[in-house]
């Protein structure tokens, strides 16, 4: 089966179209939450952003495994860029979560929330990835150490994700359960379109950064050849 790979401009256009559709659904179609009112609409950004961060941390770990196992050319750089995107969306997760909590419950942060603390641990772990990577000289040793570190971090992803099932706190109400999404059909539609939009945006940024990094590497190699 052949997988269709969109060009970067086409992917950017898709991300823009999905984002416009998501904003329209959130603003005009999805009903207002009975308990939280208008402030609940940040959910359609906060949760998809967090899931996108998880996805790119997971992608970084997968590419790290490909580097260590298959010695796949370029896998180390792809792992690095994926983790970089994960950290960017991790910052947005913490920011949107804090704004939502402050508006709805009057707290910017609470250390008693397992979900908040475990996501912060995951975020700090992958932030420290860059300290490790850039403390070493470029070469196989740095690539291997970075890959091993990225693989260790992937164990924190399911722990952070499922912490909300155990926490049962006021900051993170459970909206997805074994019985399905705890929201109306229109709310779920808005959520899915918003997540698709953010995944498309993150994929676009990932490919753009990856292209830039590869171009920079080739230019450096050319300078070395030309002396």
Radius of gyration: 20 Å
Shape: globular
Number of helices: 7
Mean pLDDT: 84
Number of DSSP strands?
2
- The N- and C-terminal alpha carbons lie at a distance of 46 Å
The total tally of domains equals 1
Task: Kindly state the percentage of residues in helix.
Answer: over 70%
| SSE string, helices as H and strands as E | HHHHHHEEH
Order of strands across the main sheet:
1-2
Structural class label: mainly alpha
Which consecutive residue ranges, at least 5 long each, have pLDDT under 50? none
Strand content bin: under 5%
Q: Sketch the major β-sheet.
A: 2 strands, antiparallel
Primary descriptors:
mainly alpha, single chain, 7 helices, 227 residues, 74% helix, two-stranded antiparallel sheet
Draw up the topology in text:
Layout: H1 8-29, H2 43-70, H3 75-105, H4 114-133, H5 140-153, H6 156-167, E1 176-177, E2 180-181, H7 185-226
Antiparallel strand pairs: 1-2
Helix pairs in contact: 1-7, 2-3, 2-5, 2-7, 3-4, 3-5, 3-7, 4-5, 4-6
Précis, in short:
With 227 residues, the chain is mostly helical. It contains seven helices and two strands.
